[in-house]
Amino acid sequence: MLEGVSKTALFTLRARAEEHARKNRRFADPDAAAWLETLGWPPELDEHYSDWIQTKTAIRTAQIDRMVTHCCAQFEVAQIVELACGLSSRRQRLGFDRAWIDLDLPEVIAARERLRVRGEHHRHVALSALDPAWIDAVASAAPPAQTIVIAEGLFYYLPLDEVEALFAAMRERLAGAVLIFDVIGAMDFEAAKRFHTQIEAPIHWAAPPPFEAAMHASGLDVIEGLEPDALLDEALREIQTFVARAVLSAFARVKMFRDRRSGTMVGRLRPL
Ligand SMILES: C[S@@+](CC[C@H](N)C(=O)[O-])C[C@H]1O[C@@H](n2cnc3c(N)ncnc32)[C@H](O)[C@@H]1O
What we know:
- The protein has twelve helices and seven strands.
- By secondary structure, it is an alpha/beta fold.
- Helix 1 crosses helix 2, helix 1 packs across helix 3 and helix 10 packs antiparallel against helix 11.
């Protein structure tokens, strides 16, 4: 059984497994379904899981998949690193056949090893994302401009000063790489804090509004075709329930809410 913040990997695994089983699914993910079946779902987490978590996770996952596909279509991608990979099956879903590194804390990597997640050009790394050793290994394996680093569901679990130090190290050693990560917006922070405290995986910070300025301050340059506004509109279109889509789209037109939104940031890392 995974503990603390690592337990959250079961929530996202379940969300993808359920997405796979839906008639109107956004993506197929047979590995997620099989891994959930093997690992089992701890019944005590039931009270914290909801349809909304399933929907949000599936939309985020589908959007990050599309970002990666977009990058692979636009330029050469030699390696992909998934920080805090949890029980992600993104490599299998996308069928990426070049170097792929899945990094997480040792107990999560041990769970993946037990599931026999293997593949050609695939490596597991049991390390904290805050340990700069992975940056050196990645920087020396392929040019940063051909590297994508994904951190889905990670940075807000870590103290802000440590995340800032990590970004500085990435901008020093991996400038030009594509970085994809999600943030919790100021609008959602209090509710997210309550939820994550209940599941014993506290979160530490929210992105300071406005969203685009926070993305720029993180050291990301916008990639053509992956502009923040277009990505927000795309995520809203992915909500399949008419009423929820209409309400959230109306909110998104109001600048105060748009600026304080949660979402996924993507861009090329600027040198420091
Ligand atoms: C919400 S899960 C996300 C997992 C996966 N990215 C996904 O979307 O399914 C959070 C993950 O962050 C990992 N994590 C937390 N702190 C970490 C750290 N310092 N370094 C690496 N991984 C970490 C946890 O072990 C867990 O797998």
